[in-house]
Amino acid sequence: MGVGNILFTPSCTAALEIAAMLTVQPGDEVIVPSFTFVSSVSAFTNIGATPIFCDIRKDTLNIDESKIPELVTPRTKAIVAVHYGGISCAMDEIAEIGSANGIAVIEDAAQALSGKFKGRALGTVGDIACFSFHSTKNYHCGEGGAVVIGNSELFKRAEIHREKGTNRKAFFRGQVDKYTWVDRGSSFVPSELNMAFLSSQLEHIDDIHDKRRYLFGLYAESLRALEEEGHLRLPIVPEGCEPSYHLFYVLLRDSESRDSLTNYLSDRGIGATFHYVPLHSSPVGGKLHDGRTLPVTEWIHSRLVRLPLYPDLEENDVDLVCRVIYEFFSDSQ
Mean pLDDT over residues 208-235, rounded? Predict the structure, then answer.
């Protein structure tokens, strides 16, 4: 990725918790999309920060950068840019908002390793980035994560947070004669066995990326006619973005069509599912939400279906999935 300040962690959640310790205090505010996994938010609420949920864009399903400025207050200390499906957020605009207001930009790049934005690796554009190596991700070790930090002073603090709040790393480097408790922290050092497994995965990063890109393209090409007929919408990749090809989804016309297609595929042995109950409507998130409407988030949630995508998937598997989807719309008419 062309950066050196990387710390591996037991999970992306742990990486996000380190990012939270570096950027917020109790009572601060964090601007986050509601359409994301809970860790994007809970890492900050666990410290006592308040999430300010932002709506998403209809094209990329990422945080809507045009909505962020109206959410900024003197208490805003971080913006969490979640690269949904490994397609980049509008990082130029988000970075500019952060810089103009003294707000840290945190890339939640859990799904984005090997993705790029205008030629730059995702995870190197914001102030801090967090990655996941969970078993559902493109490159995995069962459970694992990493935090990337551009600022050298923040990196020193991150080492302390990762080592249970102690300056143990400085001790091993001979910079102090003993180590002790100096700051907030937890046990954020990963298992060496997991990291050995991950190392083997990363040796094949290009092969895995290329296969996923090929499968993504097959789906898009095969289902294009259904999009042109108005039955569904395919993923949109903005100019300048190279996705990680983490997932492939389709958007149906309404929630009934979404549920019917999911069941139709399941009945034929094809795993397909929705994604993300919006956090602002969750039991916990609803209590923290300021009440503003997030119409695009709710529109997307009710229509999205994820299709199978993994490196061992073969061309005939994609053909089968697409054929069944065509049959579904034929049977529905």
Answer: 98
User: Which domains does the chain possess?
Assistant: 6-202 (3.40.640.10), 205-332 (3.90.1150.10)
Exposed / middle / buried, residue 17 (Cβ in 10 Å: 0-12, 13-18, 19+): buried
Phi/psi of residue 166, each to 5°? -110, 165
Question: 37-71 as b/e, with b when 16 or more CB fall inside 10 Å?
Answer: bebbbbbbbebebbbbbbbbbeebbbbbbebbeeb
On whether the CB atoms of residues 39 and 12 are closer than 8 A, the answer is: yes
pTM score, two decimals? 0.96
CA 330 from chain centre, in angstroms, equals: 35
Segment 225-238 shows an average pLDDT of 97
Is 141 exposed, middle or buried, given 0-12, 13-18 or 19+ CB atoms closer than 10 A?
buried
Q: Which residues pair with 30 in a beta bridge?
A: 51, 78
Residue 131 one-letter amino acid: F
Tokens of 186: 């937890």
Identify the three-state secondary structure at position 38.
coil
